[in-house]
Amino acid sequence: MREKREKEEKSLLEQSKNYLSGFLKWLASIIVISFMVVIAMKFLENNYDYLSKLVKTDLNHLLVLLYILLAIILQINIHEFGHLAFGKLAGYRLISYRFSIFSWNYENEKMNFALNFREFDSGSCIMIPSENEGARKADLLFYAGGIVFNFFISIVLLIAFFYVEGFLAGFFFFTALIGFLVAIKNLLPFTSDIIPTDGKFIWDLIFNRPQAIKLIRLKKLAAQLSAGIPPTELNIPLIEELNYSDFYDLLFVNQVYMKALYEDDEDTYREAARIMEENLAFYPSYALPALYYELCYVACISGEEDKAREYYQKAGKTLEKDRDINGFRVKAYYEYYINKDREKALAYAQSGLAVKDKYPVKGEALLEEKLIKKILVELEE
């Protein structure tokens, strides 16, 4: 008990250090970006012909705000599309693409569009390496994609700015400026709430830092699961070896949880679920629905009705509309253990098995199949 308390205190201290380090790096990035903006404005002042193009647009605060808003929306999409394009070049497969409340998710061998009002996401592109990919070059391509696209499109827009007038001149200028800022911010190596920037991934890979080794290992695990290797055969760190204030290690906790479920190691998967729940604030928003699924599932089989209902509600429409085997599995357990509806539970379990072969991550599908067959045994008793 004492060792556990000391470990938690150490983890809290390390988290505090990470927050301070992340804040200082974030502050440094703001200073660098502000310096670049000052240089850009000085350049325009010394080249009045260029500045006059903006003046002629009758700039006012409302118009500038509109320019910036449109520029941010466009550049975030450009950034995520860059990840998508370079990810495809690297042999990655698209799983989910999100912007704001709009999301496209790979489900039952096709992309489905959905509106998600529960979780706002400024932008995300989730891809996994294919069976034969996962090398350092492929990872560098993927993480550099968004930055390269921001820089390239911004340069094109800045050149175009010199050849247009009026509204387009202002729009091109501010979109280019925001694009440069987005690219620079993502290129700088720092973490925010323990989540690394693209630049942190890139520089870690280039300089072969310890974090890069963890990233490559995670990518390899994702590729193995995608290829159909079951969780029990994966070489995953022991849960005692992980540092919960480290973003990569939190992702390893997810893998530990899956492996423990597959092996029916109750102590380990409960401990992993506890760690995931205590660190929900540190996961990116796009990862939360899947975590809610598992916390709801563990609560169901643990007899924690209130907690099960809480996470079922948090998963919300994402879970209700989920037609993949993992969604059906959680709903089957929820109906059986919480709502006491054997008929619905049976229907969900059978529906889950029917779509098993369409699940994009084949190794996880094996786990889902095992869990569904487990509840079917109880339903048929």
List the helices and strands and how they pair.
Layout: H1 2-46, H2 48-55, H3 61-89, E1 92-100, E2 102-107, E3 110-115, E4 121-129, H4 136-161, H5 166-187, E5 191-192, E6 195-196, H6 198-206, H7 210-227, H8 247-262, H9 266-278, H10 288-302, H11 305-320, H12 325-337, H13 342-354, H14 362-379
Antiparallel strand pairs: 1-2, 1-4, 2-3, 5-6
Helix pairs in contact: 1-5, 3-4, 3-5, 4-5, 4-6, 6-7, 7-8, 8-9, 9-10, 10-11, 10-12, 11-12, 12-13, 12-14, 13-14
Number of domains: 2
Q: How far apart lie the N and C ends?
A: 40 Å
Relative helix content = 55-70%
The low-pLDDT segments are none
Q: What keywords describe this structure?
A:
single chain, 381 residues, alpha+beta, 2 domains, 4-stranded antiparallel sheet, two-stranded antiparallel sheet, 14 helices, 9% strand
What can you see in these coordinates?
This protein is of the alpha+beta class. Helices cover 69% and strands 9% of the residues. The protein has helices at 2-46, 48-55, 61-89, 136-161, 166-187, 198-206, 210-227, 247-262, 266-278, 288-302, 305-320, 325-337, 342-354, 362-379; strands spanning 92-100, 102-107, 110-115, 121-129, 191-192, 195-196. Helix 7 runs parallel beside helix 8 (247-262). The longest helix has 45 residues, at 2-46. The two termini are 40 Å apart. The model has no long low-confidence stretch (mean pLDDT 82).
